[in-house]
Amino acid sequence: MNKQELVVAYRAYLDCLNRQDWANLGLFVHDAATHNGKLIGLAGYLQMLEGDFEAIPDLHFTIEGVISDPPFIASRLRFDCCPKGLFLGLPVNGKRVKFMENVFYEYADGKIKNVHSIVDKGMIEAQL
Amino acid sequence: MNKQELVVAYRAYLDCLNRQDWANLGLFVHDAATHNGKLIGLAGYLQMLEGDFEAIPDLHFTIEGVISDPPFIASRLRFDCCPKGLFLGLPVNGKRVKFMENVFYEYADGKIKNVHSIVDKGMIEAQL
Fewest beta carbons less than 10 Å away: which of A100, B6, B84, B109? Predict the structure, then answer.
């Protein structure tokens, strides 16, 4: 994929997440996906996302900016949502919080293979 | 700057930080620099870095990966250091900790203008 195709594929992936269209997650995520250095595979990736939506029923991924340099893409994601209970170990308990995630992806075989993500925990703490 | 020139300029910026060569910081950082949405300027940027090295005497910036898409560059930075006291509100107190920072930069006029940074606070907490 060239630079623009990678952005298009990445936006389609986030649309898939926002629709919770788990039947099609395998179109975007590699069977041997890793997350922060840990091999979780497609099944583990799905489990992680299902857990995220269970913990945050109104979860929605919004792109603040992307940087595309195939096979890598980096994204600043913005969230505005109400995590139900503990989130990242913090007692959010349904309060509405806004926070950012800076995340790097490496694609292989046209799919997301390696993800390195950091959520801004301090930004959430400051709102509690 | 093209993609490769941007990477070279960025590496030179980190070398400047690692040398604590504050006299030359203005070669790399814009007079109107912002950090996480706040206008701090070159003077504020210098003050922030001096504070970082005061809090972490053995601070060293190591690149784990960069994604270049002019005028943007994103970097995964790795740290292995001993913050003296409180760090990000955490009582590190000289313990050696390893952590990552995912950071996005926008260049203007050949210099770093807008920075969006997230340090992995949870990764540090897990080591305390």
Answer: B109
Cα–Cα distance for residue pair A35/A127, rounded to 1 Å: 27
Determine the residue among B69, B73, B107, B123 to mutate to test chain A binding: the one whose Cβ has the most chain A Cβ atoms within 10 Å: B69
The whole-model pTM stands at 0.96
ipTM for this prediction: 0.95
Q: Does domain B3-125 have CATH number 3.10.450.50?
A: yes
* Angle at alpha carbon of residue A34, lines to A30 and A39, rounded to 5°: 110
Question: Mind listing the pLDDT tens digit of every residue in chain A (128 residues)?
Answer: 999 999 999 999 999 999 999 999 999 999 999 999 999 999 999 999 999 999 999 999 999 999 999 999 999 999 999 999 999 999 999 999 999 999 999 999 999 999 999 999 999 999 99
Parse chain B into domains and list their residue ranges: 3-125
Neighbours of B126 (CB within 10 A): 11
How far is the C-alpha of B88 from the C-alpha of B72, rounded, in Å? 27
Q: How many CB atoms lie within 10 A of CB B8?
A: 12
Would an 8 Å CB–CB cutoff place A37 in contact with chain B?
no
Contact check, Cβ <8 Å, A104/B67? yes
